[in-house]
């Protein structure tokens, strides 16, 4: 990716870590509860770029918003943010690019884009959706409009999932921004309301549609960048999408694929919807809820 000319977003904060808490094994959550095995599976599935696993099972809501740790250093002129690491700087250039692209798309439709905030943290912290842990991977929290990212995840993406490269990292961030777009559109609130009335299998199927649309939105962003994408970048993104497909992760973790347990989509579907966004550059083509 050619990021030298990209301006960094000022919508970020750096957290010192600490203050989080582990996911309590065996504690019952949501409808019917979930035991140790379910928590392990959720942890693995949440290691990809989706919503906090607590929100997937109906625990994290706006009514449970918690304050983050006191040692939070904002960017954007709101205080001294300290020296950023190279990976943080790259992440903020990618975030800045998404802000410019989505700003133009929203403006063209007669509305105004409100950016998300990228919260960097090491290890663990508190989010508006509960505990944030690096083991759960990056996620978007609709309760406080933030993307939570421990950048060590990018090392996992490269070494464990075989998806290295800066565009693979960009895909992660653009996917989470896609969830923010869904939040601004009111889609996430609609889905939460629908999931409350559905069976577990039906709820999972609806969640897959949420994740695939975020993949498509990531593709829309990439299609609308100017002079950023280089040869080989698209292939990096498609490899990353396949690496974090539910079937890929399930087979690696438990040796079998259980489609009714999908919450993010198969490798093929994730690639399909990312490519649809890349090919069209049009968010209207990302209707995973009614599209083929």
Automatic annotation (TrEMBL):
<dbReference type="GO" id="GO:0006508">
    <property type="term" value="P:proteolysis"/>
</dbReference>
<keyword id="KW-0812">Transmembrane</keyword>
<protein>
    <submittedName>
        <fullName>Zinc metalloprotease</fullName>
    </submittedName>
</protein>
<dbReference type="Pfam" id="PF04228">
    <property type="entry name" value="Zn_peptidase"/>
</dbReference>
<dbReference type="GO" id="GO:0016020">
    <property type="term" value="C:membrane"/>
</dbReference>
<keyword id="KW-0472">Membrane</keyword>
<keyword id="KW-0645">Protease</keyword>
<keyword id="KW-0378">Hydrolase</keyword>
<keyword id="KW-0482">Metalloprotease</keyword>
<dbReference type="GO" id="GO:0008237">
    <property type="term" value="F:metallopeptidase activity"/>
</dbReference>
<feature type="region of interest" description="Disordered">
    <location>
        <begin position="65"/>
        <end position="89"/>
    </location>
</feature>
<dbReference type="InterPro" id="IPR007343">
    <property type="entry name" value="Uncharacterised_pept_Zn_put"/>
</dbReference>
<keyword id="KW-1133">Transmembrane helix</keyword>
């Amino acid at each position: 990716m050619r990021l030298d000319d990209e301006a960094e977003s000022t919508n970020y904060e750096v957290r010192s870590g600490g203050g989080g808490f582990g996911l309590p094994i065996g504690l019952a959550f949501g409808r019917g509860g979930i035991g140790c095995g379910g928590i392990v599976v959720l942890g693995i599935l949440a290691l990809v770029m989706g919503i906090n696993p607590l929100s997937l099972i109906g625990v994290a809501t706006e009514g449970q918003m918690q304050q983050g740790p006191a040692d939070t250093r904002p960017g954007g002129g709101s205080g001294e943010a300290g020296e950023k690491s190279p990976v943080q700087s790259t992440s903020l250039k990618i975030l800045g690019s998404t802000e410019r692209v989505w700003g133009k798309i929203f403006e063209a439709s007669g509305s105004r884009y409100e950016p998300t905030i990228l919260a960097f943290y090491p290890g663990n912290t508190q989010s508006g959706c509960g505990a944030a842990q690096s083991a759960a991977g990056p996620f978007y929290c609709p309760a406080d409009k933030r993307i939570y990212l421990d950048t060590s995840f990018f090392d996992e993406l490269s070494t464990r999932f075989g998806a290295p490269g800066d565009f693979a990292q960009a895909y992660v961030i653009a996917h989470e921004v896609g969830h923010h777009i869904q939040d601004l559109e009111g889609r996430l609130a609609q889905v939460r309301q629908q999931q409350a009335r559905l069976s577990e299998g039906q709820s999972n199927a609806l969640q897959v549609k949420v994740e695939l649309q975020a993949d498509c939105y990531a593709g829309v962003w990439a299609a609308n960048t100017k002079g950023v994408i280089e040869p080989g970048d698209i292939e990096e993104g498609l490899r990353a999408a396949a690496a974090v497909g539910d079937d890929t992760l399930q087979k690696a973790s438990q040796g079998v694929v259980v489609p009714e347990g999908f919450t993010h989509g198969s490798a093929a579907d994730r690639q399909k919807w990312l490519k649809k966004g890349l090919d069209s550059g049009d968010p209207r083509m990302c209707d995973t809820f009614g599209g083929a």
